[in-house]
Amino acid sequence: MDGVSYQRFPKVKIRELKDDYLKFELRDTDASMANALRRVMIAEVPTIAIDLVEIEVNSSVLNDEFIAHRLGLIPLTSERAMSMRFSRDCDACDGDGQCEFCSVEFHLRAKCHSDQTLDVTSKDLYSSDHTVVPVDFADPTGYDSNDQQRGIIIVKLRRGQELRLRAIARKGIGKDHAKWSPAATVTFMYEPEIHINEDLMETLTLEEKQSWVESSPTKVFDIDPNTGQVIVVDAEAYTYDDEVIKKAEAMGKPGLVEIYAKEDSFIFTVESTGAIKASQLVLNAIEILKQKLDAVRLSEDTVEADDQFGELGAHMRGG
Amino acid sequence: MGLMHVDEPAKDYQNEQLLDKQKLAAPVKSAVDKFQLLPEFLKGLVKQHLDSFNYFVNVGIKKIIRANDRIVSGIDPNIFLRFKDVRIGQPSVTVDGVSEKLTPHMCRLSDMTYAAPILVNIEYVQGGHPEKITMEKNDVVIGRMPIMLRSRCCVLYGKDEAELARLGECPLDPGGYFIIKGTEKVLLIQEQLSKNRIIIDTDKKGNVNASVTSSTETVKSKTVIQMEKEKMYLLLNQFTKKIPIMVVMKAMGMESDQEVVQMVGRDPRFSALLLPSIEECAGLDIYTQENALEYLEGKVKRSTFGSPPSDKEGRALPILRDVFLANVPVCNNNFRPKCLYVAVMLRRMMEAMLNKDAMDDKDYVGNKRLELSGQLVSLLFEDLFKTMISEVKKHVDFVLSKPSRSSKIDPSLYITRDSITIGLERTLSTGNFDVKRFKMHRKGMTQVLARLSFIGTLGHMTRISPQFEKSRKVSGPRALQPSQWGMLCPCDTPEGEACGLVKNLALMTHVTTDEEEGPLVSLCYCLGVEDLELLSGEELHNPNSFLVIFNGLILGKHRRPQRFADAMRKLRRAGKIGEFVSIFVNEKQRCVYIASDGGRVCRPLVIADKGISRIKEHHMKELLDGVRTFDDFLREGLIEYLDVNEENNALIALYEGDATTDTTHIEIEPFTILGVCAGLIPYPHHNQSPRNTYQCAMGKQAMGNIAYNELCRMDTLLYLLVYPQRPLLTTRTIELVGYDKLGAGQNATVAVMSYSGYDIEDAIVMNKASLDRGFGRCIVMKKYSAINQKYANNTADRILRPDRTGPGAERMQHLVLYYIILVSLTYPCCRYWMMMDLLLPGEIIRPNDIYVNKESPMETRGSTVSPMGQSDCKYRSTRQTYKGPEGETCAVDRVALCSDKNGDLCIKFIIRHTRRPEVGDKFSSRHGQKGVCGTIIQQEDFPFSERGICPDLIMNPHGFPSRMTVGKMIELLGGKAGVSCGRFHYGSAFGEPSGHADTVDAISETLVKHGFSYSGKDLIYSGITGCPLQAYIFMGPIYYQKLKHMVLDKMHARGSGPRVMLTRQPTEGRARNGGLRVGEMERDCLIAYGASMLIFERLMISSDPFEVQVCRVCGLLGYYNNKLKAGICSTCKNGDNISTMKLPYACKLLIQELQSMNIVPRLKLAEA
């Protein structure tokens, strides 16, 4: 038991990095690690979202619950979230979640005075804390930055309608409600490894090659216009659909190509809702994952673990 | 011109070949896309109802008035009243003598009837004995007619969208219903057997029958001629026995047997069949008309009432004249047409006997008539109008018969409005048609318009209620009739007892209204029909001529029937005669049938000459440009309406390309054979047929939007979806009816795979994150109302300020004082204000909260009391408490005050509850695949694809093999292609050849183009382990409906609770917080298991235990005397032998009830 070490040193290589988008490789680990990271990113990285709405006046067409639900789903910038307290274990306010340590207050006042419909957007939400504001999707370099009202639309008002409310945003995690999930998309795939059997490939005519290349729904292969050789242009575009393999078999050339999934290498795609930067999302996730592992390690050290886990605890300590 | 047309497409063809490969692969499109005709035709979705009602208002009511236009006094015939004209005014209501215009929405909100005054112009004689003055009055109101919405009389008629919005109406609402006392009522379409037509069929004994249900303005009767033991008899209600038919013929003056044989036809087979009847007649010694009438006189039923027989005629002749085959008119006692009619009936019977094919099919749609609201209202109005006339007459006679009259008589004053108004209103609101004059007693003719979903409303308007009662276990009328094609929807019928009996109209069906007969009859004679009067019996059935039958009446014969029919049709196409007149040449019966009566179903078809469609490209272009309308197509003879019978003379090609030289007509669009509800299903032609039927039923329960004005309406129950969507995979019908604007469902990404085991038996697994984000979220609004009633003794309920301290104060804390300014509708300057404590909209309300703190007077009858001086003790509290789902918070959405029908103040509350889906809520796709939510799973545990797609719900693949809903699979593919390429895909029924449905090939190509597998399957990773799943998963968007059945409304459990007073057993049902019954089958199980103590507990301890005193001597029940502290037997008058035992109270009750009926059950006790 002692001699074998399963310790590995996973490596991360960042492929592409934008504020709300990150693509990276995760190598030298296995699916459990990769999936744990993904799950934490979706469900356990904390953000801030509107959780309590007090409506003063609402004469819009949408009812109170409707508006409250929409407000909750607006992503708020949550860099502060990691350092904030959950309102349920905030000592300062006895858990009623109204203090500055665990909550941010928002106000919204809108009334339509003109004949044109007024769009109430996330821009109309005034925050008590300048670090926690609705995310701004206006692309600074964007082509249509001329449009000023580009927030997330909450409700449309016609002449005479009014909406006035106070909202309290709190820290939370995606497990409780999807509004606290910072991840729009988190997914990974196994990195494919493609080996073309060159000898067998050369037995094909150019047309056959062409039809074989086209049999893949994504553009994985191409034909070198000069040499007429089939080359892999984008291995990661391969979706493990087996179409090319089936095609090869149909052409009577089984083994034309061999495709494996590298079991220890993952390509992650992370898109953020804008609440936190995609890079921060991954870092936070790793941090949280560490904390969770710490909890396990701590319990390993402490004696209470015996009470807590009984035989299991002893077993974990190698007993 | 024609040549040019042929050339051009050929050129295009070459160009296209170079341009677009895909277009080539698609089947050759029909030369002309006739689809655009549909939106034009379907401008009013319930045109049948509107046309029928309009016909009544424009023509029918005038006819009724004209037929009964005189009221003449029986005492002084010089005093009369004459109705000159009638019309229906603007919908209005009269309040305090001032009439005010009504809009439908006003009526809905304030529980009024949307009705318009019936105005008549009258002429009458006023005055007493000496001087009589003829007077005229215009616009006298005789009653108020409920108005069908969107009909000619309705204020909504011809309004555009903006005007409708101003009136508070939804532009997509089809109209076609009435508003009676604030509720929307539909007069269902009634299916009936044709009137005035000969129907040949067999009865239970196998006897051949020929029956005619005659219906004229005055009489309704049923005549049956029956063949029994080779002899023919007449069965008529007015005769006690069956009458040999030859006697009837002789009674009608047809004394010569030879002529009868000639009239029937000289074929020896017919004569042979007729011989036994002739012999029987001879056997009765009846040879002359007098003999026959004498014989008949003895058979006439002696009715207790009715006119005494006039001596001259006897009873039999009037019956033969007026009741027997009442639809054949007898002028000047000329019975010849009737004799000929009987002869034709006999001939048809004999033909049927010789050749079973000649039998009529009662289920054949051509033998059916649909009675629509116009006809029904007309019947009702006629009855009420006649009643009113007789009332007036009675009144006038009563006044005239008084010996001394002080004032002059004015008949116009006796016209009462109320009888007609109330009669119409009551009948329409209860649905019980009791028209004694026409022997009509039908129940459930009107129904409250289903407003659960938009499609449910539409489906309700096209529903046809059956003629038979539902209990009959016959398959014939329930089976799908081939003649239903294009007229009645083959899919939309309920399951269960009404299956196949309740039908629905197809998309393009039109139901005819009556048409003037006179001009058509004379036209027939002009076109060479030889008059019946001029024909001898011999000539009637000449082998080279056809009989011409007009609306069931024999006009005569024609020697060149085809030519005659062609001429008639040509006239119809030219618009010289009505477009709904049908001309049908029946080769087998050697008859030409012409029909112009109302209630026939028909549908438009494109006319083709020798297989070449009359509609050309340029016609459609003009239609698109708006210079041509559907009516232009009709008028120019490009399109015509065919009814079911005439369809038999036509050869209809489905597509222009299929047409041969024999083709006479071409279908407009094949998907129009389906109705509104079935039209929502994408690719229904790929599904197993019952699945489409199931969806038709479920589409009506789906939540979504019901109308644009849904939030302004005060429905008792309203289910709305928070984020409704339009389906990604649409059909043409969806666009035509507006389902894309008022959807009832959401596009869910569905993965067809097994997950967690909580998806067996059609359960679905849902993604919690999707639910968090609003998938399947719905709003339930319920109406609660409180009436501040006034009572006969001048007392009234009163609404109090809430107690802020007393008992129940915490349940009233939400009540807020309102100052309400009431503005009189009629005098806007007259306003008065009141104070009232009500709930504020937006306020949260919990179960057991009080929403109206009301008190009612104890004494409501007796002498009048001054309303003010009542002391508090004379009132008892009648607080109204809100009973909603326990543990849920609801909110007050709206509060409305109005006066109800008695003029009392009525406060209506709409309570809103927003719900997210929970385990057990019911969902369904559009393919009859319903399922409940089995479990809700966190997003991170859900499978995901490497693109990051995570399904909203997971459906078990076992749902597919046995259901065979291939359409659902294609919907998934098409939806997936739709989201990836950004175009809505179509899946109209049978739409692939005409381009109204995308083919699977084209869809697959789109999928591949966007990097998906052509099969719609993806590689999926498990969300729990992160490993790829072993199989590719079929995943994509499918439109899912949330159905109204939700766990919250159904779940129920009880410990202890209320009991029924009589039996002391727990109450029944969820609404009464009832107990869960251990029924007899459960009891049997427990007995079989031997769990006697459990049975004892369930059936007695937990139910109705009762302690009784039983006398061991007499075995009767005694009682417990509390003073003596001992049980006493009242029979033995002592307490010596009393035992105390436990008994179910119901048992004790039974014993006592039996005793009350002189049965003495005695209990014999033994030591246990």
Give the topology:
The complex is a heterodimer of chains A (319) and B (1168).
Chain A lengths: L10 E7 L3 E7 L3 H13 L3 E12 L5 H9 L30 E9 L6 E4 L3 E3 L25 E5 L4 E11 L10 E14 L1 H5 L3 H9 L6 E3 L6 E3 L10 H8 L6 E16 L5 H24 L2 H6 L1 H6 L3
Antiparallel strand pairs in A: 1-2, 2-12, 3-8, 4-6, 4-8, 5-7, 9-12, 10-11
Chain B lengths: L1 H18 L1 H5 L11 H5 L5 H21 L2 E3 L7 E9 L3 E4 L2 E4 L2 H6 L5 E13 L4 E15 L14 H6 L11 E3 L2 E5 L1 E5 L4 E5 L5 E8 L4 E9 L2 E6 L6 E2 H7 L5 H8 L3 H16 L5 H11 L16 H8 L12 H19 L13 E4 L1 H29 L16 H13 L2 E3 L4 E3 L3 E3 L5 H8 L1 E3 L37 E2 L5 E2 L6 H9 L3 E2 L5 H4 L5 E5 L2 E6 L2 H13 L8 E5 L4 E5 L5 E9 L2 E2 L3 H9 L4 H6 L3 E5 H4 L4 E2 L11 E2 L22 H10 L18 E5 L7 E2 L1 H6 L8 E7 L11 E4 H5 L5 E11 L9 E2 L15 E9 L7 E9 L4 E2 L4 E3 L1 E4 L17 E3 L2 E2 L8 E10 L5 E11 L6 E4 L4 E8 L6 E2 L7 E3 L10 H16 L3 E2 L13 H10 L7 E2 L1 E2 L11 E10 ...
Protein name (chain A): DNA-directed RNA polymerase II subunit
Keywords (chain A): DNA-directed RNA polymerase, Transcription
Protein name (chain B): DNA-directed RNA polymerase subunit beta
What does this protein structure show overall?
The complex is a heterodimer of chains A (319) and B (1168). By secondary structure, chain A is of the alpha+beta class. In chain A, 25% of the residues lie in helices and 29% in strands. Chain A is built from eight helices and twelve strands. Chain A has helices at 31-43, 64-72, 198-202, 206-214, 243-250, 278-301, 304-309, 311-316, and strands at residues 11-17, 21-27, 47-58, 103-111, 118-121, 125-127, 153-157, 162-172, 183-196, 221-223, 230-232, 257-272. In chain A, the strands form four sheets. A four-stranded antiparallel β-sheet of chain A has the order 1-2-12-9. In chain A, helix 1 crosses helix 6 (278-301). In chain B, strands 21, 27, 28, 29, 30 and 31 form a six-stranded mixed β-sheet that branches. The longest helix of chain B is centred in the first third of the chain and has 29 residues, at 373-401. The N and C termini of chain B lie far apart (109 Å). With 1168 residues, chain B is α+β, with helices and mostly antiparallel strands. In chain B, helix 4 packs parallel to helix 13 and helix 13 (373-401) packs antiparallel against helix 14. Chain B contains 30 helices and 58 strands. Helix content of chain B is 26%, strand content 25%.
